[in-house]
Amino acid sequence: MKADEKIRCPWCLKDDIYKRYHDEVWGVPEHDDRKLFAKLILDGAQAGLSWYTILIRTESYAKAYDNWEAKKIACYGEKDVERLLNDPGIIRNRAKVAASIGNAQAYLKIMEDGPGSFDKFLWKHVGGKVKVNSYAQMSEVPASTPESDAMSKDLKKHGFKFVGTTIVYAFMQACGMVDDHLVTCWKKKG
């Protein structure tokens, strides 16, 4: 390691794309409804794959999914499904594509009938504030928690797919609902 290089969580050391994601996005509290929706869809697309596989496709996903305009996505028909299944810039899995459309519909229903924002709907599971953990090694970081179990159950109740507790916990980490930066990481909050 270079003397001037920051100490980071070991999972992001693969390349500069991963380091930039770690430094600028992962663990930063997100409250924008559209960005939260997009991230949840991307985390669902990741199921069974590495996050890096999705990370390098985020721009392609935004383009393929009308820049995450949920009202448009919710109205996608078979022609749109076929378009997405033929798009080499995204993961071409029929179940994941169908889930993204259903998830857009569920998202809109929450926006209409729920607390008025996806942000409030999601952040209630952590009491509206970041849960800061203090792990020294990656092996200590859990794959799920009671909070991710509850959020997963709540999302499923509202019609979301590909939102199991492990996916939801990764989403919570990425959106800054939990701070799981290791104690040695320069991004660790006090």
Keywords summarizing the entry:
single chain; 190 residues; mainly alpha; Endonuclease III, domain 1; two-stranded parallel ribbon; 10 helices; 2% strand
Question: What would you say this structure looks like, in words?
Answer:
By secondary structure, the chain is mainly α. The chain has one domain (10-179): Orthogonal Bundle (Endonuclease III, domain 1). The protein is built from ten helices and two strands. The chain has helices spanning 16-24, 33-46, 51-55, 58-64, 70-74, 78-85, 94-113, 118-123, 146-157, 165-174, and strands at 131-132, 178-179. Strands 1-2 form a two-stranded parallel sheet. 33% of the residues are buried. The mean pLDDT is 95.
Instruction: Summarize the helix and strand pattern as letters.
Output: HHHHHHHHEHHE
Strand composition percent: under 5%
Q: What is the total tally of β strands? A: 2
Distance between the termini: 24 Å
Supply the number of helical segments: 10
| Helix proportion range | 40-55%
Described by strand count, sense and barrel closure, the largest sheet is:
2 strands, parallel
**What overall geometry do the principal axes of the alpha carbons give?**
globular
CATH C-level name? Mainly Alpha
Low-confidence stretches: none
Query: Biggest sheet, strands in spatial order?
Result: 1-2
Structurally, how many domains make up the residues? Answer: 1
Give the second-level CATH assignment, the architecture: Orthogonal Bundle
> What structural class should be given to the helix and strand makeup?
mainly alpha
Radius of gyration based on Cα positions: 17 Å
Give the name of the CATH superfamily. Hypothetical protein, domain 2
What name does the CATH topology carry?
Endonuclease III, domain 1
Average pLDDT works out at: 95
